[in-house]
Structures are given as C-alpha cells and as structure tokens.
Amino acid sequence: MNSHRYGKLIAAGLSLLMVTSLAACSDDTSDNSPDKPTDNPTSQATGFAQDANTLVFGVVPDSVDTETNYQPLMDYIALKTGLSVKYYESTDYAALIEAAIAGKIDVASFSGFTYVIATNNGAKIVPISSIVTEAGAEPGYYSEAIVPLNSTITTLADFKGKKVCFVDPSSTSGYLFPSFELLKLGISAENDVTPVFAGKHDISVTKVAQGVECEAGFAEDSQVALSDAVRVIQRTHVPGAPIVVSDTLPDSVKTNLTQALANVTIDQIIAAGVAKADSDAFRSTFAATSPVNDAAYDLIRQICQQTGAKQCQA
Known about the structure:
Elements: H1 9-17, H2 19-25, H3 43-46, E1 54-59, H4 66-81, E2 84-89, H5 93-101, E3 107-109, H6 112-120, E4 125-132, E5 141-148, E6 163-166, H7 172-183, E7 194-197, H8 201-210, E8 216-220, H9 221-224, E9 230-238, E10 242-246, H10 251-261, H11 266-271, H12 280-283, E11 288-291, H13 298-307
Parallel strand pairs: 1-2, 1-3, 6-7, 6-8
Antiparallel strand pairs: 3-10, 4-10, 4-11, 5-8, 5-9
Helix pairs in contact: 2-5, 5-6, 7-13
C-alpha cells in the first residue's frame, strides 16, 4: 500500500542514498513535517517512538483510501495492547525508511523491498506477519506489467524504448521486481526505457491507462484490478509485505503485538469488537495475517544482488 513524488530516477536514487545521513541528522533538526514524527524526551528511555502510552503505526499510502483501510487493524492493535495507536502516513518509501532508522515508528506496514533497505541501513525492526487478502491464501501478491487497452505492446520485451511507469524506486512490486523481470530480457530499467515514477500504485495505473506520460508500466495487482482501462501482459509473484515491529519496544509489548498480529482473521477482529472491520472496504484489503520472519525476504536480497540496485546498499 504507496505515494507520490519522484520524476527522475537519478534524483530518486540520490534521495534514497541519503536515507542514512538524513536519519543521523533527524535528532538535530527542528523540522516537524509529516515525515518526521515529533521527538519526545521520554521515548528513548521507554523504547517507544513517542511515549509509553502510544504506538506509532507507519504506512506508505498506495491510494487515497489507505488510512481508512488500515483503521480497523489499528483499532484491533489498540484493543489488544491497551495503548493508543497513532497513524503516521509517510510521503514516500524513503521517508518511511528514514523514520524506521531513526526509531520514529513502533509498528509499520512495509513493502518487502523497503524492509530490506531499512534493515540494511540499521533499522531495528522485526517482521512478524504479512496481510493476505483472500482466506486460505499464502502471503504475497503480484507485480503486474500493464499497458493501455488499445496498446500494440504485447510482451515485456516490447517495453524497450518506451516511457514506462514505475511506482517508486523503493517499491517491491512497482520497481524492484519489474526491473528484475526487464533485466532478464536484457532491458535496463535505467537506460533502455524512460522511467516515470508515479509515486503510488493507483497513479501508475491511471497514467498507463491514459497512455500519455506512460506507454506501459507496473503496479500491484489490487490496484490494477480496479481499472478496466489497462491490460495485464505479465504478472510476477512477490513475497508478502511485512508488518514489522520495533525491536526497541519493551519485550512485553513486542510479545503482545506478535501474538495479536501473527495470525488473525477478519472474523476474529470483528468478534473482538472492531465494528469498522465489517465493511466491504476492509474486506477488499484484508482477510487475515500469516506469520513471516526475516528469511522470507531472502529472495528480495537475491534480486538486489542480481540487479545491483543502488537502493539495496547500506
């Protein structure tokens, strides 16, 4: 679930390479923008991002409905922990990585790629589960290569030389896996196409459908399914995006969060008293969670090595 900002790949790559230095400087700045949750003097002592009564839940939005879609899960966390849950919407992946490195979030929904980048750069976070959208399904989703309905493009090889929409340089399904699939065909996502970074999955779908800024592109399957103006020409399975918890939290809180989120169904959330979970909107994005651990993202590390993606580097 993602956001909007980048126009050029070089600028995006530089911004991600600056993540570590930005995080190191974050405690010395007075910037209280949305990407930098306000420091609290008690947070360092308690191990919480804000204070011992609050859990900060970080997300990169993939559409305008992101907060609404996550609210029932946040309500469930509050119910299970007895703590207030504060929604923290990062403007992009780099900012969420920075927040994780700086210890500004307690719980978060990462992409697999973002998780690997964050931990490579020193973020003290641990994956505990992944959201599945269909009952009985395995964690994961699909990165889909898309074109306008009336496009003459029929294969991924036809992307060469085209204006191609990606989501964000740190998006698993919107950049890392697409760049790997292109590379297998001898196509560089940097040099053999004109990359356009849409910022969010839904915006990538919209731009491809319009066929002006982007002649083809990539997005996660849940957002592609909402459009009848694009055609899918290839799909690639992606490891499930992890829900992570800060490793600096008190052990009792980490244990509570792990037990509450590792394996829970939508029916259990509703039965616990979260009425907002019983809605079409939440059901379209959440069926259950399934436990995952760090090893679940070794495939992403392997793709990082094969693509040489700068974003993967510490």
